[in-house]
């Protein structure tokens, strides 16, 4: 049971998928393994301007299903393979690889809770902060817990997950148990290379009685014996219910400054925009404005920008979708001295905007033209689990 681990750092331009792979062979025929494209969620920059991970990215791949269990001659290689749909489109790139280690998996039973979400991130979005009027009703299942999990061991395991909700005092106010059936070991997976995780969604039936801060917690267990690393069988996250705020960001981890690109015009910055996608669970909500934490490099010159609420039209894309807008002149008093001292600035719309359950919305700050000062905002470097973060690029697509 073989595992390959390494650290990597790469940059490439200008397509959203990295053309870098780990390949394995035990008979002279090479198999693709470890397509690393999932790492694009770690990127700060838009792939339009060149993608890169944040620092060195530790990567681990179990190659057992591709290498064969009893093979005496197994080879691996790291490959740059031009994606056929892009032709020769990648204009510049590099790939740094270090600390490559190949070792035997000695763990028999080793389940891991990979990610816990408050909502169905495969079809809609999750929210760290939810207004009471947008809480999922008990009739509709209450809080929906999503868990991504995997088997890191060499043996198949029958697994169960316990989903709990804890109040601010650590008291359990809800618990739900769900059988996950047999979780296959990577070497026994029907699909090779083995998917990096499996997913389950559990309706808790729990609804908060009022505003407050709660903890959502998932605990994996198995009847197959002692787990090799029990500390990664438990995962939790914070949920905040408010009177009127709604948001995705973990405000304690706003650790990345999102910035525009330099313009081809010397001394100016390109148009830019940053924001998040939303969908309403219940009808009757009204949007009054947006709260923004600007970055320490924001402002410092003449800067006009807008707050926009788009009603997303999938047929034309975000850039060409209809929107409501409010114009602003940037105030340097909003610029923090550093990342740690950044605070929210509330920017109200000219008029309240009615929201419906039928539409997807994008709410953000937009600088439509080249400018002498930067429009920058604070964001989470590695938390866009549901793809709710978007950036706006004039006359181009947004992601």
What this model shows, in words?
There is one protein chain. The chain is mainly beta and about 400 residues long. About 0% of the residues lie in helices and about 45% in strands. It has one helix and 23 strands. The strands form seven sheets. Strands 8-14-13-10-11 form a five-stranded mixed sheet, with no helix packed on it. A five-stranded antiparallel sheet has the order 19-18-21-16-23, with no helix packed on it. β2 (about 20-25) and β3 (about 30-35) form a beta hairpin. It is globular, with a radius of gyration of 23 Å. About 30% of the residues are buried. The model is unreliable at about 35-50 and about 395-399 (pLDDT under 50).
Summarize it.
By secondary structure, the protein is mainly β. The chain is 1% helix and 43% strand.
Mean pLDDT: 84
Uncertain residue ranges: 34-50, 395-399
Strand content: 35-45%
Proportion of helical residues: under 10%
Name the strands of the widest sheet in spatial order. Answer: 8-14-13-10-11
Number of helices: 1
N-to-C order of helices and strands? EEEEHEEEEEEEEEEEEEEEEEEE
**Helix vs. strand class:** mainly beta
Strand count, sense and barrel status of the largest sheet are: 5 strands, mixed
- Radius of gyration, in Å, reads 23 Å
> How many strands in all?
23
Q: What is the rounded distance between the termini? A: 38 Å
Gross geometry = globular
Indicate the topology.
Blueprint: E1 2-13, E2 20-25, E3 31-33, E4 57-62, H1 64-67, E5 75-80, E6 92-104, E7 111-118, E8 129-131, E9 144-151, E10 157-166, E11 172-183, E12 198-203, E13 212-222, E14 234-242, E15 256-258, E16 272-279, E17 286-292, E18 304-311, E19 323-329, E20 345-354, E21 360-367, E22 377-379, E23 389-391
Parallel strand pairs: 8-14
Antiparallel strand pairs: 1-4, 1-6, 2-3, 2-5, 7-9, 9-12, 10-11, 10-13, 13-14, 15-22, 16-21, 16-23, 17-20, 18-19, 18-21
């Amino acid at each position: 049971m073989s595992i390959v681990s390494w650290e990597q750092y790469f940059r490439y331009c200008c397509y959203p998928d990295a053309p870098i792979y780990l390949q394995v062979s035990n008979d002279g025929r090479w198999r693709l393994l470890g397509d690393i494209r999932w790492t694009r969620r770690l990127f700060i920059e838009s792939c339009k301007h060149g993608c890169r991970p944040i620092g060195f990215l530790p990567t681990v791949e179990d190659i057992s299903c591709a290498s064969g269990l009893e093979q005496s001659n197994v080879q691996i290689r790291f490959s740059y393979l031009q994606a056929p749909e892009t032709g020769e489109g990648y204009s510049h790139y590099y790939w740094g690889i270090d600390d490559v280690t190949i070792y035997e998996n000695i763990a028999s039973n080793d389940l891991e809770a990979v990610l816990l979400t408050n909502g169905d991130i495969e079809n809609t979005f999750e929210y760290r902060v939810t207004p009471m009027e947008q809480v999922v009703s008990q009739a509709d299942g209450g809080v929906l817990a999503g868990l991504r999990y995997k088997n890191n061991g060499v043996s198949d395991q029958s697994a169960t997950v316990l989903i709990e909700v804890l109040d601010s005092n650590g008291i359990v106010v809800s618990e739900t148990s769900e059988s996950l059936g047999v979780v296959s070991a990577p070497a026994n997976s029907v699909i090779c290379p083995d998917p990096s995780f499996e997913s389950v969604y559990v309706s808790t039936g729990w609804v908060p009685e009022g505003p407050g801060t709660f903890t959502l917690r998932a605990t994996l267990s198995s009847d197959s014996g002692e787990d090799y690393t029990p500390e990664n069988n438990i995962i939790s996250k914070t949920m905040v219910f408010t009177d009127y705020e709604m948001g995705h960001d973990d405000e304690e981890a706003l650790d990345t400054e999102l910035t525009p690109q330099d313009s081809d015009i010397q001394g100016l910055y390109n148009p830019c925009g940053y924001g998040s996608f939303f969908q309403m669970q219940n009808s009757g909500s009204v949007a009054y404005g947006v709260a923004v934490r600007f970055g320490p490099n924001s402002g410092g010159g003449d800067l006009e920008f807008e707050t926009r609420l788009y009603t997303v039209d999938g047929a034309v894309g975000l850039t060409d979708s209809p929107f409501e807008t409010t114009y602003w002149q940037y105030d340097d008093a909003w610029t923090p001295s550093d990342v740690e001292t950044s605070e929210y600035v509330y920017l109200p719309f000219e008029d309240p905007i009615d929201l419906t359950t039928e539409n997807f919305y994008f709410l953000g700050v937009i600088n439509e033209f080249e400018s002498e000062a930067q429009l920058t905002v604070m964001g989470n470097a590695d938390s866009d689990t549901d793809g709710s973060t978007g950036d706006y690029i004039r006359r181009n697509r947004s992601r």
